[in-house]
Amino acid sequence: MNQHLQQRWHQLSHRERILVLAGGVIVGMSLLFVLVVDPLLDSYDQLNRQEARKRKDLREFMVLAQEYTAKQAQLVQAEQRLPEAGGQFSLLAFLEEAAGAAKMRDHIAGMQPQVQPSSNGYEETAVDLRLENVSLPQVLDLLVAIDQAPYDLQVQHLKIRPKFDDPTRLETTIRVLSYAKSR
């Protein structure tokens, strides 16, 4: 077979040989491009897209890491204002003292404490404080005292209703929350 091809090659004219060689070179180059170069270019493009996506993911991760660090610092700062569970701070006693300072101790109609079971390392204590026949400045003084407490307290619910017979006097219900670190 090899001999047969050599005979055919020698029978071709110089111009035909150049054409056959040029065709072979073109077919070889096409095969080289299709089988080697094109897959390499596709991989290169894919890697460039992956690199851009990974850089974007990295930037997002860095932003999230900064946010996480800021939130951790806020958490540490907030935990410094939390009393220890079972410690010396009593929300009931504090509210009674604050009501006394606002000259409202005689107007306390009821205080109902509720302790929620600890979750995520924190214990929540809520006190529903009912006040009757108080003035708006007295209520505001009590809210200021709650806001300026040595520990982090939150007013979760505030309900103020004027008395029917004297609209300048109020009936007030305040729900105050206190959080403590669980032991």
- Can you count the helices? 4
State the major sheet.
4 strands, antiparallel
In round numbers, the mean pLDDT is 86
Helix content: 40-55%
- SSE string: HHHEEHEE
> Strand content of the residues, in percent?
25-35%
Q: Give the CATH class of the largest domain.
A: Alpha Beta
Form type: rod-shaped
CATH second-level architecture of the largest domain: 2-Layer Sandwich
Give the CA-CA distance, first to last residue. 93 Å
**Derived structural class:** alpha+beta
Brief digest:
With 183 residues, the chain is of the alpha+beta class.
Describe the structure using short key phrases.
single chain, 183 residues, alpha+beta, Alpha-Beta Plaits, 2 domains, four-stranded antiparallel β-sheet, 55% helix, rod-shaped
